[in-house]
Amino acid sequence: LFDKVREAYDVVSDDKKRATYIDEVIFGKKNENDAAMEQLQAYWKAEASFNKGKTLFHQGQIPTAHANFKEAYEASPDTLEFVAFYGYTLFNLNRTSNPEKAEEGLALLKDVLEKNQEQENKLDSAWVLMGRAYREQGQTAKAKRTIKQALQYNPGNQDAVREMRRLTQNAPAQKKKEESKGGFWSKLFGKK
Fold this sequence. Notes:
The protein has helices at residues 2-13, 15-26, 32-58, 62-75, 80-94, 99-117, 124-136, 140-153, 158-169, 171-181, 184-189. By secondary structure, it is mostly helical. Helix 8 runs antiparallel to helix 9. The longest helix is centred in the N-terminal third of the chain and has 27 residues, at 32-58. It starts with a helix and ends with a helix. The mean pLDDT is 85.
């Protein structure tokens, strides 16, 4: 009993301890440790959603993957990899139906690449996603440059290797298509 009285007096007599006690016990505010643990649990939940989304993404289930990426992005908007995949799937799902939403997704992806330039660990996966977006827009040259950048950061990135293979296999057909377009002057005077 004396120990409890001494402990209570110790809390009541110290202004800082008394304020902390009032905040936690009376008002129900979380202390620093509880808040940190809650934040960590939220991140773990976001990471689980992201990993599930990545699995679905690689299976080609973009709409379902997008829902998981959105959940991860909203729970942890500062995690660049979450933002990159959310941005790409937002672009991919809306590129034909809603150009504004598609542009919003591209803006998120470009922002990730800018922020990642300042970081030590480079997100080669975000560069691959940007390359895919460029390819899907028909911007082959930009797509190749972006994929090359991803391969410089991580030569073992299989997604980047597949994308580069896809771009180089389609290159002859794309070149013929571009040559046949030619402008008025090139058609009139030849290709030179």
